[in-house]
Design goal:
Layout (H helix, E strand, L loop, with lengths): L22 H11 L1 H13 L2 H12 L5 H31 L6 H11 L1 H32 L4 H28 L4 H14 L1 H24 L6 H4 L1 H29 L10 H6 L25
Helix pairs in contact: 2-4, 2-11, 3-4, 4-5, 4-6, 4-7, 4-11, 6-7, 7-8, 7-11, 9-11
């Protein structure tokens, strides 16, 4: 802008080769720059949970011969789209973490449609594990009360440990699905191995996600008007947190070794030629020198 100075004078710009900020500061910088996209992802996520919301309304508000059938139908629809919905969100959040330019809806549709079958398989596995844990919460105490055998709690503890490992694996499953062309069986295997290589990140992610959800619950307890936050914020923020924490692990142990072994150029490298080919102009931020303004001397006046 020429409002506070000459627009023809080169400023310092932003050096594209400057060293990256530390992860903590980069997390908030990317969040600030992509806040609108994260809100949009959350809005899409909540909108596509309409079948679940309608199922609750039908079950609570109606009481006729179609109530149970319609409720089950809506739940099955939600079950069918839940996994692909997470895959679409993961594709968008991966590009946010990589700091790439993209069209949000186009990338979401690709992630949703291209990963539909595999994402559905992952979600079915998650649902079975989740249902088992919930059932165990009610069944095991009742069994102990009836038989007096407390040893069954050991089995319940093992099931909870397995569920925790599955939870940690989910931090890698959808990002791997979004970033690679691996088969579901291989993705599950790699996700399990990556959990073993990044237990610290998994624990930190879980604690941060629990803190976020706890804060939302607290706000809802203070005032139910905070319900509108569910539409715009927590789900996509947690997804962004997961991607930011765990995608570098995927790059380190899966993506970078692949390109090193094959000798192909890594498109996720910071200065790859793939980016150069798409570049319309070269960013010289930080290297430009100010243009010296030409002096305009008064000429001789001819009378």
């Amino acid at each position: 802008m020429g409002l506070f100075g000459g627009y023809q004078n080169a400023g310092p710009g932003i050096d594209p080769n400057a060293p990256k900020k530390k992860p903590f500061f980069r997390f908030w910088e990317l969040l600030r720059r992509n806040f609108g996209k994260i809100l949009t992802v959350n809005l899409i996520y909540m909108t596509l949970h309409a079948p679940l919301l309608l199922a609750g309304i039908v079950y609570i508000e109606t009481n006729n011969k179609f109530t149970n059938a319609m409720t089950i139908f809506l739940l099955l629809v939600q079950m069918l789209i839940e996994g692909p919905l997470l895959a679409g969100c993961a594709r968008v959040q991966r590009l946010i973490v990589l700091d790439k330019a993209f069209f949000l809806m186009e990338e979401f549709k690709k992630g949703f449609s291209q990963n539909f079958g595999a994402a559905l398989v992952y979600w079915i596995i998650d649902s079975v594990i989740l249902a088992s844990v919930i059932a165990g919460y009610y069944v095991y105490p009742q069994y102990v009360q009836e038989t007096g055998k407390t040893g069954i709690y050991i089995v319940y503890g093992i099931s909870l440990a397995v569920a925790m490992v599955i939870l940690f694996m989910n931090y890698y499953i959808m990002p791997l699905q979004a970033a690679t062309t691996l088969k579901p069986k291989t993705i599950l295997k790699n996700a399990f191995m990556l959990v073993g290589l990044s237990l610290k990140q998994c624990v930190i992610t879980t604690l941060c996600a629990a803190l976020t959800l706890g804060l939302i619950v607290l706000l809802l307890w203070i005032n139910s008007l905070f319900m509108f936050l569910l539409i715009f914020f927590p789900a996509a923020f947690i997804g962004y947190l997961v991607m930011f924490m765990h995608y570098p692990v995927i790059q380190k142990y899966v993506i970078n070794p692949y390109y090193e072994d094959t000798g192909e150029e890594n498109p996720e490298a910071e200065h790859s030629s793939a980016d150069d080919e798409e570049r319309v102009f070269t960013d010289r931020g930080g290297s430009e020198e100010p243009v010296k303004a030409e002096s305009h001397k008064k000429g001789k006046k001819i009378s």
